[in-house]
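ok posting inputs for the pyridoxal-5'-phosphate job
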Amino acid sequence: MTQSYQPTQAQLLNGAAEPSTAAASTWTIEDSEELYRIRGWGEPYFSINAAGHITVSPQGDRGGSLDLYELVEALRQRDLELPLLLRFSDILKDRIERLNACFAKAIARYSYAGTYRGVFPVKCNQQRHLIEDLVRFGQPFQFGLEAGSKPELLIALATLNTPGALLICNGYKDEGYIETAMLGQRLGQQPFIVLEQLDEVDTVIQTSQRLGIQPLLGVRAKLSTRGVGRWSDSAGDRAKFGLSIADILTVVERLRAAGMLSCLRLLHFHIGSQVSAISAIKDALREACQIYVELAKLGAPMGYLDVGGGLGVDYDGSKTNFHASKNYSTQNYANDVVAEVKEACAARDLPVPTLISESGRAVASHQSVLIFDVLGTSEATQSTPEPLQPGEHALVRELYEIYESTHANNYQEAYNDALQFKEEAASLFDFGYLSLTERARIERLFWACCRQIVEIVRQEDYVPDELEDLEKSMASIYYVNLSVFQSAPDSWAIDQLFPILPIHRLNEEPTSRATLADLTCDSDGKINQFIDLRGVKDVLELHNYIPGQPYYLGLFLGGAYQEIMGSLHNLFGQTNTVHIQLTPKGYQIEHVVKGDTMAQVLSYVEYSAEDLLEQIRRRSEQALQNRDISLDEARLLQKNYQNSLNHYTYLS
Ligand SMILES: *Cc1c(COP(=O)(O)O)cnc(C)c1O
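and the output
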């Protein structure tokens, strides 16, 4: 593991043998900023204030900011329990404005004779309040929507009310989908039906003739250029979506034969999400531009080029082509799109098309922050060992000596010796020569030695091989009030990295190293990979947990894909969600969407709360008759059962 900072002073973990001195608190908020890489991934929305709290500036440097810790405290006073999903609509607005500003700048810079009309892919986040905000904030830019399925089309058709905005219809389509999209034209929408499968063209031709509507058509090309990283299979010859060059020609011929080639207006491609290298985008653009000009040469009117999604988010703030990052800015991206298309059209004397991008992740990720609290830790290995008593076992004495004499010049030897004594203790125990108490004593001493060694190792430039994993195996587990499966499914399913950090105490040195374990009874319900400047960290620096005092962590940049892909593992339901908008005086709560109650999640698996309650009542009645339960106990049980049904699924 790599450390991107130098601790100010060698400090033992909790229960330090040496009392920490005042000098230990030279930790500053700048140290936290660097450690958690906030500038890298959080600018301009997130920073730390003098109190050591995360602040949110939803409008970047153009507007006010609010203290996230105080906000959470205020919401808890309104009985909004953790975990809490906070949505900052001003951030969403800012993301849309920035994306459009980047394209406007690129268009001006290259004197591009066309315009940009972005669309938001609804699949990134279908929540009604968010889509409604998005349409409203996108109005000045004629920002549209992209649907990838029939239900998403229903959302888009009803919600999009911006004159001139585009409605891109992707995904697998049956007759009902195509008919509904075409009829959308009669409502004043501009639905582009993007052909992804060869047989869709016949349905489109028949439906068009039946309804007497001239549709707006596009084709999705299967490029041979691939994206990079996780979603690179979205392109290439074996891709699930899109038409090969041969298929595209077939579409052209069939449309021409039906007298509908004049409907073919758009070329679409999508090389995958989170494209981390700008070179992949450029390669794809070059190939797509050639297909575009060839289609125009074949007689299709064209006029629209849709470059799909893929615009990345810098989750680790490293500005590299690592999968959790991207090596380009939105402005670089816009410049490349505009310049490539202009050049390709100029070479063939063609008018330039209207440019469309379907940027989802880049628009929706920043607007939400998930706040959850720590319920406890596995600090058992962290207490200071009792002093040596006369007559203790020889192995105890040996380990105690190591504990007292480890320093920077002998830590490697100390580690090997301690390990050997621990193994000896285990085999003595197996043969009945060591009591349970003695073995426990030896294990505690062993971990105390390891803690000292880890402290020394952290100061060293070179880490011996056998000690590489010590930090990881020494890490505490912080138990968090959260279901990874519900709130950060990509972290479990595809090892996606999200910035995670405490939202307060950032003026204090985080002296613990920890992994996170969630509430589910599933060993996969954990987070043990964290962002780092180089690669990935196995442990997260956290503050020592003080029982009885709230310790809040935030998961950032999770506004795209996570909510809808979340699942009800162990029946942990959707979290409370609060929409916050900044006002000149502070903020206002626009909407509160209460998370699932237990009765709700039970109904998803077909249990009726009433029936369950009735069964408990009947069983209590029987137990009463058998004198197995008292009346007071029966009443208490039923009250708890009833309360639980109406209560949040998380711990309070
Ligand atoms: C998923 C998807 C997008 C969104 O991609 P992002 O990388 O989130 O911007 C856009 N277009 C299509 C066709 C998609 O399938």
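notes: The chain is about 40% helix and 15% strand. Residues 1-23 have pLDDT under 50 and may be disordered.
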